[in-house]
Amino acid sequence: MIEIGCLARYFNSYEHEVTFARENGFQLLQIWYDKYGIQNQDVKEQTNTIKQYNYPAIIHAVLDINMIEEHIPNLIKVLKTLEHKELIIHPVCKSEPITETTIYKLADIVKATLVVLANESITLIGEGSLVFNRGDSDYTIPDKRIYLSRMIVKAEYRNRGIGGVIIDFLIDYAKRLGYEEMSLGVDTNNLNAWHLYEKKGFTNVIFKGEDEDGEYVKLLRKII
């Protein structure tokens, strides 16, 4: 069973990251895929490099909500080449503000994506979203504070360190975009999630409230 993983950092060579993972006891590399390629490298070339080293890895796709469907065929090719059966997708709501319509749109895209992946025997094991405009200054401030949303790991893949790696990945991505703070909301009775967020530095409770789902808190952390 995988216990702990780490992000393959885009600014280092893949060989360096494999060596780092081995020397520090990490059992999995999480590999960045976005519209620019894999770790900012040509997709075909980097896919061949990953296959050559044959180190346990999972592709983490960071894509704008309006790019996901466009990139799924290419992702499937990458996964088939690597003989991978699992995938993490991280939708980014950058091309449009998050609204009730956007949420339903994302849900429809995820459902459609799951069908396509299932037909290829590929499992989507987790997802996480960053929201640039939540319409609430507790959650988002332009160019300063970004909101972590929809942090989900499929039940049978929990307690393997995957959720923590996804959060690390999102924090690193937000830093690259120039953000200083990250916020999130969590139900007070979701103790496992709250504990994970605290471990990742979300210790500043900026709001306590209640909605139709019960009591919740808004958490904040500095990321630079």
Q: Mind sketching the topology for me?
A:
Blueprint: E1 6-7, H1 14-23, E2 29-34, E3 37-38, H2 43-53, E4 57-64, H3 68-82, E5 86-93, H4 100-119, E6 123-131, E7 145-153, H5 162-176, E8 181-187, H6 191-199, E9 204-211, E10 214-222
Runs in which pLDDT lies below 50 for 5 or more consecutive residues are none
Number of domains: 1
Q: How many H/I helical runs? A: 6
The residue-averaged pLDDT reads 88
Biggest beta sheet attributes: 10 strands, mixed
What is the strand content?
25-35%
Q: How would you classify the helix and strand content by structural class?
A: alpha/beta
Number of strands: 10
Q: Architecture, according to CATH? A: 3-Layer(aba) Sandwich
| CATH fold descriptor | Aminopeptidase
Rg for CA atoms: 17 Å
What is the CATH class?
Alpha Beta
Helical content class? 25-40%
Secondary-structure element series: EHEEHEHEHEEHEHEE
Q: What is the CATH homologous superfamily assignment?
A: Gcn5-related N-acetyltransferase (GNAT)
Distance between the termini: 33 Å
Notes on the structure:
- The chain is α/β, with parallel strands linked by helices.
- The protein has one domain: Gcn5-related N-acetyltransferase (GNAT) (Aminopeptidase).
- It contains six helices and ten strands; from the N terminus they run E-H-E-E-H-E-H-E-H-E-E-H-E-H-E-E.
- Strands 1, 2, 3, 4, 5, 6, 7, 8, 9 and 10 form a ten-stranded mixed β-sheet that branches.
- Helix 1 links the parallel strand 1 and strand 2.
- Helix 3 packs parallel to helix 4.
- The chain is globular, with a radius of gyration of 17 Å.
- The relative contact order is 0.11.
- The mean pLDDT is 88.
